[in-house]
Design goal:
The protein is mainly alpha-helical. The chain has one domain. Helix content is about 70%, strand content about 0%. It contains two helices and no strands. The longest helix has 17 residues.
């Protein structure tokens, strides 16, 4: 059940949140880093 929930969260992330692929994480703002971290956390938990 947990994996299905995180897979749903990842699908929502892909549609709603911006992507920061190819950008230097050191140059991102704190909010952008938080979004990047949340996307990573959700992806790892869905695998």
């Amino acid at each position: 059940m947990k994996k299905e929930l995180f897979k749903l969260v990842v699908k929502l992330n892909n549609k709603l949140l911006p992507r920061y692929a190819g950008k230097d994480p050191a140059k991102l703002s704190k909010v952008q880093r938080a979004v990047l971290g949340f996307r990573y956390w959700a992806l790892i938990n869905s695998l």
